[in-house]
Specification:
By secondary structure, the protein is of the alpha/beta class. Helices cover 30% and strands 30% of the residues. α6 (181-193) links the parallel β9 and β10. The longest helix has 14 residues, at 222-235. It is globular, with a radius of gyration of 19 Å.
Amino acid sequence: MGGFLLSIIMNQKLYLQYDISNLSPEQSEMLIALLDMWGLQGFEEQEDALIASAPPGEVDEEEIDNYLKSGGFVYTKQLVEQQNWNAIWESGFEPVIVDDFAAVRASFHRPVANVKYELIITPKMSFGTGHHATTYMMIQEMEGLIFDGRRVFDFGTGTVVLSILAEKMGAASILASDYDSLCMENGFENVAANNCSRIVLIQSEYPPFTGSFDIVLANINRHIILANLVLLSGRLANGGFLLLSGILKSDEPDIVQATKEAGLTFLHTRQQGEWIAILVSKPLQGC
């Protein structure tokens, strides 16, 4: 994963920045998952280091410091001034091409030839460009599902990239939700940029308590998936598919067991580095 991909801070004069050095790629990816859960919102991966940031006062510094110290991580912490994150992101962002299936690019890139679906995404303050392994694998897995005429729910939608792809693949309707108002703002922009008309965006921390969906997409994290898995299963139509990511390989046993307890059938796991995507289904009634 390169560049700033997670909830980038844009409206703070000062922000708290952790510079963590001497990291392997695997350690960097694991730290991103943990620090994101603890409230850090902006991440930049470098060759052997990670820069993580958040508005001061919105994270538990003592908890983060204790974890980093106990793990033997080398880091510094400081308050730094706001930068032009869009300019930084644009300088390093390259299109993401998933085989000949899909390409994710920004509006300032040239069109990508020889792909079935082209998505125009400007992430700004949201997660999901395809650079990160989790989004990339979600797109790969979506290629194997039939979206034509299906009802789709995209939980934790971020940039709305997966919902946009679902519409381009023929979904009849897509409900996309995220708890973050900045993601909503960015999402509406991306929906308009792709001329989508069947995506409904709502700001919510939880899945809907009513309705039925043929395909549910959830690229979030282990904690949120486990907390909402029963509700997600309840919203899934019989014979429907639930595609999960934002989880590490080490989380696989817990996630798979939880899906079974929720009445779902495990189909397969896809892995890229330390990250995985899991596909499960809801049995047809009487099966």
